[in-house]
């Protein structure tokens, strides 16, 4: 495996006294594409939110692109510059246009001149196939279009790692494919991706590795064919029999 983009060792996380993640050990190679699946409440969102410090871990260590995630605000800022996130409910700014959603962070956080940020945004809006929506507001778009804006917005920060938390779970069935198609394209461009999803077709098509979580633990992991066709753990088998 090439140089680790993310290295998590012996990580435990608690919400109050409730232990939500248990002894997580995970190395993600640069350019690796990982799908995380598992029952609701198993800690999938919490795990990926720890990677850009939307949640804090209590024990163990997380290194992202060679920088340790700890209380050092400088480290956190540094890591967040390189790690983009796409959420289940899009989280677009409703009072800003599509284009403004895409240029806000680059102009404010990165001090990119407005014209340059707009040109970059249009490039990515073309890439997710909605340049014609640039002057609309999120509320005027379909769910699938909003999620593609969210992906374009993340790409405008030129991230090295993209985290996806169930990006298609809130979409009507007919819109799932248009979002997955964009994600497949990103995957083939060599983006390091961690994606929480139950879209097994997507996992088979792009994942280098599928990780199955249950009750805060990584229970089993492997290539999609290994994990889906020949799961070794009883909990993995039970889960897969419900979603496949
Ligand atoms: P998943 O994404 O796999 O559904 P989550 O990471 O969202 O799982 O949640 C894992 C567990 O942690 C669940 O039991 C959930 O209720 C709990 N949990 C999630 N967020 C919080 C929070 N902010 N405070 C307390 N408990 C939480
Ligand atoms: Mg979740």
From TrEMBL:
One of its GO terms (molecular function) is ATP hydrolysis activity. It comes from the Bacteria. It holds the Pfam family ABC_tran. CDD domains: ABC_HisP_GlnQ. InterPro entries: AAA+_ATPase (IPR003593), ABC_ATPase_HisP-typ (IPR030679), ABC_transporter-like_ATP-bd (IPR003439), ABC_transporter-like_CS (IPR017871), MetN_ABC_transporter-like (IPR050086), P-loop_NTPase (IPR027417). Residues 6-240 form the ABC transporter domain. PROSITE patterns: ABC_TRANSPORTER_1, ABC_TRANSPORTER_2. Keywords: ATP-binding, Nucleotide-binding, Plasmid, Transport. Signal peptide: none annotated. Belongs to the ABC transporter superfamily. This is Amino acid ABC transporter ATP-binding protein. It comes from Shinella sumterensis.
């Amino acid at each position: 495996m090439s140089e680790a983009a993310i290295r998590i060792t012996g990580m435990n996380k608690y919400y109050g006294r409730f232990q939500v993640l248990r002894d997580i050990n995970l190395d993600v190679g640069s350019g690796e594409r990982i799908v995380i699946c598992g029952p609701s409440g198993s800690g999938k969102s919490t795990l990926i939110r720890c990677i850009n410090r939307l949640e804090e871990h209590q024990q163990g260590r997380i290194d992202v692109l060679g920088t340790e995630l700890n209380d050092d605000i400088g480290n956190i800022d540094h890591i967040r510059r390189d790690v983009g996130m796409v959420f289940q409910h899009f989280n677009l700014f409703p009072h800003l246009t599509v284009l403004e959603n895409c240029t806000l962070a680059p102009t404010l956080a990165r001090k990119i001149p407005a014209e340059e940020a707009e040109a970059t945004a249009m490039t990515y809006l073309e890439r997710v196939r909605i340049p014609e929506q640039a002057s609309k507001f999120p509320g005027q778009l379909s769910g699938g279009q909003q999620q593609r804006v969210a992906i374009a917005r993340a790409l405008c920060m030129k991230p090295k790692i993209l985290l996806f938390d169930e990006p298609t779970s809130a979409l009507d069935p007919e819109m799932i494919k248009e979002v997955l198609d964009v994600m497949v394209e990103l995957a083939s461009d060599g983006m390091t991706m961690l994606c929480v999803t139950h879209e097994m077709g997507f996992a088979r098509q792009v994942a280098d590795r599928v990780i199955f979580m249950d009750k805060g633990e990584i229970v089993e992991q492997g290539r999609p064919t290994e994990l889906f066709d020949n799961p070794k753990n009883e909990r993995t088998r039970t889960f897969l029999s419900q979603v496949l």
